[in-house]
């Protein structure tokens, strides 16, 4: 019998220790070490014996100058948003980790994409749902694919045996936390199991040039569940985020070895699956007949995509001793900073007011260029004066009350013009690069918070 080995793992970052520690030396968290049984034993046949799978791969030392540069071969899917976040398509031999909250739509999205990708054999491995449950979801999506195969299994040894028989061109694992390898004596979902099963799939992907998608869970604080090394092992990390009470989802790139990390895709959850949103500005701006105060439109950039979003603010008299500050979709500390600027530089008494701020559509935006729109929405609600409907804003607000320049202003102006806006207010420091810009929208430059107030409310 082989000798079992016991080790302690940090459940937060995956740090391994021979003995129990109260504080993790890697992530500085307390009481996160759990003992796990580890038995690293090589199989007789070996799960990584892929020489006959897709040609024999020879590893030898070669000079860098002798390597011929070539573009990565990609599988272009029918989903334009997924192609966008992956950098143009699925790279052959890549391993992609997709994380998100339970029920956000990860399984639906990749089942839908697998059913729509004709002409290539796809293996969908599910460790969480039965065959009947997945069949019911496929019927709801109203899509079929003769080359789409389903396997409900959690043992990597059985999964690799089926892979050798089927020889699929794309593999989807749902989810990595449910898999277990017989060579590690710990429960599925533990740090050592996640690390070992991901390593086996990584070896398979690289040696056979087969792309693999790993669907994963996230923890309560929003980080990807499992050891931090899991994110370093994969080529691409995608975060699927959004509020389950809203219809819109964002697929955001956190890491990509084959493309930009500044991309995102937007989907709408419908009864028949995920619908890619090609023009998100239309759905993020509320169409309303009555013109009310406290609403401003911000020209933002999310990733490489310009978006027009609606900022909603409500300023009321406080009935408690301490005024309330509540935000949805924006950092609360950023709101407090803008309120302090208005209090100090503008003389507005927000210290006795309750302030509520919301970004319509359930999005979370971190672009500092929406500061100016937030500030104007706050002033509009404070004065109870509606802003003109044909105006939008793009500018960062500094602590001294100045309106600072933002990047890629040409794209913001072009998106505002495309959406039918007639005027955009921005920083005067952005005017230098706009001398040769041909546009039909009126560009108004301001330098300080007082100028904005005088322009809109005086």
From TrEMBL:
Every RecA family profile domain range: 71-218
Xref: InterPro entries: AAA+_ATPase (IPR003593), DNA_repair_RadA (IPR004504), RecA_ATP-bd (IPR020588), Rubredoxin_2 (IPR041166)
Motif position, RadA KNRFG motif: 255-259
CC terms in the record's Gene Ontology section: cytosol
Coiled coil: none
GO BP: any one term: recombinational repair
SMART domains: AAA (SM00382)
Keyword Lyase annotated: no
Keywords: ATP-binding, DNA damage, DNA repair, DNA-binding, Hydrolase, Metal-binding, Nucleotide-binding, Stress response, Zinc, Zinc-finger
GO molecular function: ATP binding; ATP-dependent DNA damage sensor activity; damaged DNA binding; hydrolase activity; zinc ion binding
Residues binding ATP: 100-107
Lon-protease-like as annotated region, ranges: 354-458
Role played: DNA-dependent ATPase involved in processing of recombination intermediates, plays a role in repairing DNA breaks. Stimulates the branch migration of RecA-mediated strand transfer reactions, allowing the 3' invading strand to extend heteroduplex DNA faster. Binds ssDNA in the presence of ADP but not other nucleotides, has ATPase activity that is stimulated by ssDNA and various branched DNA structures, but inhibited by SSB. Does not have RecA's homology-searching function. Plays a role in repairing double-strand DNA breaks, probably involving stabilizing or processing branched DNA or blocked replication forks.
Family: Belongs to the RecA family. RadA subfamily.
Domain description: The middle region has homology to RecA with ATPase motifs including the RadA KNRFG motif, while the C-terminus is homologous to Lon protease.
Protein name, UniProt field: DNA repair protein RadA
Gene this protein is translated from: radA
């Amino acid at each position: 019998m082989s000798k079992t080995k016991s080790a302690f793992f940090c459940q937060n970052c995956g740090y391994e220790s021979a003995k129990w520690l109260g504080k993790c030396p890697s992530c500085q968290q307390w009481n996160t070490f759990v003992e796990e049984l580890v038995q690293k034993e090589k199989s007789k046949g070996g799960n990584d014996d892929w020489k006959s799978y897709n040609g024999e791969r020879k590893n030898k030392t070669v000079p860098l100058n002798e390597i011929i540069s070539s573009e990565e071969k990609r599988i272009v899917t029918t989903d334009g948003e997924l192609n966008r976040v992956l950098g143009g398509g699925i790279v052959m031999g890549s391993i992609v980790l997709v994380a998100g909250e339970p029920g956000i739509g990860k399984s639906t999205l990749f089942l839908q994409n697998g059913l729509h990708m004709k002409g290539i054999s796809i293996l969908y491995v599910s460790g969480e749902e039965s065959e009947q449950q997945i069949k019911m979801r496929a019927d709801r999506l109203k899509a079929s694919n003769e080359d789409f195969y389903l396997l409900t299994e959690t043992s990597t040894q059985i999964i690799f045996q089926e892979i050798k028989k089927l020889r699929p061109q794309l593999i989807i694992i749902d989810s990595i936390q449910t898999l277990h390898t017989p060579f590690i004596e710990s429960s599925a979902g533990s740090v050592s199991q996640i690390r070992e099963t991901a390593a086996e799939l990584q070896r398979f992907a690289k040696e056979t040039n087969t792309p693999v998608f790993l669907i994963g869970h996230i923890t309560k604080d929003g980080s990807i569940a499992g050891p931090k090394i899991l994110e370093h092992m994969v080529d691409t990390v995608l975060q699927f985020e959004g509020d389950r009470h809203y219809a819109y989802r964002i697929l955001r790139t956190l890491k990509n070895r084959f493309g930009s990390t500044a991309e995102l895709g937007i989907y709408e959850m419908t009864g028949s699956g995920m619908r890619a949103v090609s023009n998100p500005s239309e759905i993020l701006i509320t169409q309303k007949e009555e013109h009310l105060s406290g609403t401003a439109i911000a020209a933002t950039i999310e990733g490489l995509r310009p978006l027009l979003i609606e900022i909603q603010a409500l300023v009321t008299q406080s009935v408690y001793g301490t005024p309330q500050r509540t935000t949805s979709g924006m950092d609360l500390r950023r709101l407090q900073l803008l309120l302090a600027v208005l209090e100090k530089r503008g003389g507005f008494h927000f210290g006795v007011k309750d302030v509520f701020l919301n970004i319509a559509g359930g999005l979370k935006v971190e672009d500092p260029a929406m500061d100016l729109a937030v500030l104007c929405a706050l002033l509009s609600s404070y004065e109870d004066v509606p802003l003109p409907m044909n105006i939008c804003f793009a500018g960062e607000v500094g602590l001294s009350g100045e309106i600072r320049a933002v990047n890629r202003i040409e794209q913001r102006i072009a998106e505002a013009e495309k959406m039918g806006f007639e005027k955009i207010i921005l920083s005067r420091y952005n005017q230098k690069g706009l001398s040769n810009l041909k546009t039909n929208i009126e560009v108004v430059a301001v330098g300080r918070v007082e100028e904005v107030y005088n322009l809109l409310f005086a």
